[in-house]
Amino acid sequence: MKKVYLIRHAKSSREDFLLDDFERPLNKRGKFDAPLMGARLHDKKIMPDTILSSPAVRAKTTAEIIAKKIGFEKEIVFIKDIYEASATTLHKVLSKIADKNNIVFLFGHNPSLNELAENYIHFNDNIPTCAVVEIEFECNSWADMSADNARLVSFDYPKKEM
């Protein structure tokens, strides 16, 4: 059994129009939502075997905040291909994960996270910023994950509990 948590980066700032998209930091709400979602994951006692993230500042910061909140002590793996990726590229990234890892957090961006969730579990909701989509695969190898063996376990986002 394999499990992936698709986590969209927290809300980012658009104040500096001269700043490249890759460099956009979290805004005030993003800085509130990331630890909130990290606390929810911690309360559920969820600990990934590995964390993969886009290196874009907003995704990287979100990953670092949540990792700290849950007590993740390993290195976060930043993968350039996750930034501006297609759903196909994200699937390829996930399919190359070492099979010793059973639980993975993937921090990324829309629309690719939404498209990936739609491909796996026919997920039709929008994945808002800092949302977590938990998908379980009935397989023993990441290379074998598909829509045929995927199921939605949970969907959480900052405003869900408010």
Account of the 3D structure:
The structure is a single chain. By secondary structure, this protein is an alpha/beta fold. The protein has one domain (2-12, 23-136, 152-161): 3-Layer(aba) Sandwich (Rossmann fold). 30% of the residues lie in helices and 20% in strands. It has four helices and six strands. The protein has helices at residues 28-43, 57-70, 87-95, 112-121, and strands spanning 2-8, 50-53, 77-78, 103-108, 132-137, 150-156. The protein has a six-stranded mixed β-sheet with strand order 3-2-4-1-5-6, with helices on both faces. Helix 2 links the parallel strand 2 (50-53) and strand 3. Helix 1 (28-43) packs parallel to helix 2. The N and C termini lie far apart (32 Å). The model has no long low-confidence stretch (mean pLDDT 96).
Alpha plus pi helix count: 4
Instruction: Based on the coordinates given, report the CATH architecture.
Output: 3-Layer(aba) Sandwich
Shape verdict? globular
The helix content is 25-40%
Proportion in β-strands: 15-25%
**Arithmetic mean of pLDDT:** 96
State the name of the first-level CATH class.
Alpha Beta
Give, in spatial order, the strands making up the sheet with the most strands: 3-2-4-1-5-6
Number of strand elements:
6
Kindly give the count of domains: 1
* Major sheet details: 6 strands, mixed
What is the CATH superfamily classification? Answer: Phosphoglycerate mutase-like
Structure, briefly:
The protein is of the alpha/beta class and 162 residues long. The chain has 4 helices and 6 strands; from the N terminus they run E-H-E-H-E-H-E-H-E-E.
